[in-house]
Write the structure tokens for this entry.
Amino acid sequence: MIAEFVHLTVTGVLVASLLALGAVGLSLTFGVARFANVAHPDFMMLGAYTTFAFNSLIGVPLGWAALAGIVAALLVGVPVARIAYDKLPVTGTVQLLIISIGVSFILRHVVLFFFGSGFLQFAVPLQRPYVWGPVRLTPYQILTLVVASVLVLAVHLLLSRTKLGRILRAIADNPVLCEISGADVGRARLAMWAIAVLLASTGGILFGLNLVIQPNMGWDLVIPIFSAAILGGIGNPYGAMAGALVIGLVQEWSTLLIPSVYKEAVAFCAMALCLMFRPRGLWGAA
Amino acid sequence: MSLLSVEGVTAGYEQMEILHDVSIEVRPGEIVTLIGPNGAGKSTLMKTVFGLLTPRRGSIRLEGRDITGLAPSALVGRGLSYVPQVDNVFPSLTVEENLEMGAVVRRDDFRGRLEEVLGLFPTLVPKRRLKVGGLSGGERQMVAMGRALMLDPCLLLLDEPSAGLAPVLVDTVFEKIEALNRNGLAILLVEQSAREALRRSHRGYVLAGGQVRLEGPGPALLEDAEVARLYLGG
């Protein structure tokens, strides 16, 4: 039982690190652009498929394929986000939300058209796990934890220590005053979409490294990623990191008591419970 | 030569024209106050000068150069700073970060400027690392003015700096404005506390219905019978 609990905790932290890469970007874009980008998890799917194309179709080794995949995801994702969310003569939270559902469908169906609907895997050798008592981790799982931690730390340093980070937090606070101060809001938003796509596509690649990929994976991740972001107080990237950890652990621990097919329902219930008692999220501003 | 000259400006929002053929000027080193009833167009005039609204007719010149229709980011680069009446701070940023946002277009090292501006508002010094959202109304107003001063502007536009402040703080705000002006900064002010403002102004304009009705030296306007009856409460 204890061994099982430890194993689920390790798995939960792994799931959390994947969710965090999606949820942090989602929260950042919600704070700055002020709408819920339903297509955000599809940027994860995009990164997984661009990497798959370089790795399995062209035969580039996985490390280089991942780098090329991230660049390709940026080249597709950032212009799509700029055109759909920043350049259309549309403002308003609901309008942008609906547009993002459309973007999600388009991305998914383009991938579906080229790659089919089946499950796919990266061409990676079999992994021999390291075993420390009840803890078993494959090298790719360790890589996942390291990469996710480094990226989340990098986002923290960017937001807290750099001029761009300060401008992004300032836009989230008061976009008009940002313009009045003379900040280049358009360029900051471009940087924000690049950060969001970079985090999401890396998360998608790590997802593919540990599991299988399919074109609906973005859609399947909507509930856990939004749950993590909302739980942490949406618009607050730091809350999103913590929210991802809660969702990851609660999802995995729940399998001790109920069948694992209900994992996503558990994530949703955790979010619903949180909203009942703390409508602004566990770490949201009061 | 005037520092700011607004000539025959007509402006407003999509459906509604608010300013009709307005002309004002600010000369170097002056405090100029706009007074007038609610809806007279005072804030609209400020927004138009700062490029948040584009005039339909007329021209605006800063230091002799045409700035009509320029965006705020371009005007900030020319030394114009604006403090709106509401939402004039970043609540979740610290005092220091708010001030740094005021220098966002400066490429030089602004740490020295930060200390200078904090020196103008000593009450903010012990709170420099606190989030502005937790400060009092008076302190927020100091942060708002501080942000605009970080630019080392040639002209400061202040929209109702005393609005919503306790009477004792209103005096403090006006003392700050006078102190800044003594250092040579020109200030264009919109004020509800018209008496306080006019007494300290070199010149003033009375706006009503989107037009300039009267203009003259601040103290003279203060003594004008019609101004007193209409806008100063008798």
